[in-house]
Amino acid sequence: MKKVGLMVIMVMMMVNLYAKKELVIYTYDSFSWVEDKMIGEFEKTEDCKVKLVKFDNTGKILGRLKLEKKNPKADIIIGLTPTLTGEAKKENLLEKYKSPNLSKVKKEDLIFDKENYVTPYDFGGLAIVYDPEKMEIVPTSFEDITKLKRKLIIQDPRTSTTGQDFLLWTIAIYKEDWKEFWTKLKPAILTVTPGWSEAFSKFAIGEAPMMLSYGTDGAYSFENYKSLKYKAFIPNEGGYVQEEGLGIAKGSKNRKMAEKFINFVLTDKFQENIPLNQWMFPVVDVKMPKSFEYAIAPKKIVSIDAKKVSNNLTKWLDEWEKIMY
Q1: What are phi and psi of 239, to 5 degrees?
Q2: Dihedral through CA 81, CA 86, CA 88, CA 93, nearest 10?
Q3: pTM of the predicted structure, to 2 decimals
Q4: What is the pLDDT of residue 277?
Q5: Which of 57, 80, 180, 240 is least surrounded, with the fewest CB atoms within 10 Å of its CB?
Q6: Per-block average pLDDT, block size 10, for the chain (325 residues)?
Q7: In sequence order, which residues have a C-beta less than 8 Å from that of residue 240 and are 6 or more positions away?
């Protein structure tokens, strides 16, 4: 019996020794294209398994990380904006890592976390997307939008990074008067969705002729419909750029593999897949698809100090909620 027990233990040890390491990635649902396009290549190259855990939005990822703080499950977090990065760092949810491939990033200001907790992988300007067949007169400013009735779909800033950046965009423009603007904007809004995917689903079936999205939606329209079925505009008050990054979760059980994955995300091959899958701009200089000639970029960019956001975001979200609900 002792021999049998010893053999069982030895077999289990051998299984553990040769079992492939599993890299656990937390990300939002619209980033799931990597499962089909890129994960297999990484698994083959590094002889590992990648488990992609998808959430409705990145805000929920931070919530999960806080719950798992004493017993971390994730190795990599994908979808961190500068605002969420600040929150994650404040809660001590990330570990520092400076990728050697960071030198490939085409502009220094795209590296939004100078402490290297988060590595950038894409960026894109927010915009209002509309169906030209359903809009006789297209607004050109935020003030024009406030004159419409139930025409706009937006994302919830409490759950969506796109929605949160839209709120910050309006605060960057209207400053102390932002609450007055939202009071005027409210009648123009048909609905507020938890995330971008839900908003696009409603927009695509014609529930409203406009939605909050990105300046790359013209590229999406041309690539998929060979026409500008959907168009986009950036209000003339100024545009706002959203940046996204990934980082290593605090307490990662596969630190070395996590580092390799971050390096992989900054390779040309991965970055070349971002435009037609993520519908954002890659942070590395790679060949761009022809359809991106139809993407629009802001002529004037507005921004808001990251420290100011960190100090005030909770209060702003509470004030926004009181206005909207």
Answers
A1: -105, 165
A2: 120
A3: 0.84
A4: 94
A5: 180
A6: 52 49 94 90 96 89 95 97 93 98 95 96 96 94 98 96 96 98 98 94 97 95 91 95 96 98 98 96 97 92 89 96 97
A7: 125, 126, 165, 166, 168, 169, 172, 298, 301, 302, 303
The token duo for 117 is 């907790």
* Domains, the chain, ordered by start: 2-123+242-287 (3.40.190.10), 125-241+296-324 (3.40.190.10)
Supply 299's token pair. 């002529």
Name the region of 212 (left: φ>0; alpha: ψ -120 to 50; beta: rest).
Answer: beta
Q: How many residues does the chain have?
A: 325
Instruction: With beta carbons less than 8 A apart as the criterion, state whether 187 and 176 touch.
Output: no
Q: Say which residues have a Cβ less than 8 Å from residue 93's Cβ, sequence separation at least 6.
A: 62, 65, 66, 69, 77, 249, 250
Whole-number Å distance between alpha carbons of 278 and 43: 21
pLDDT at 29: 87
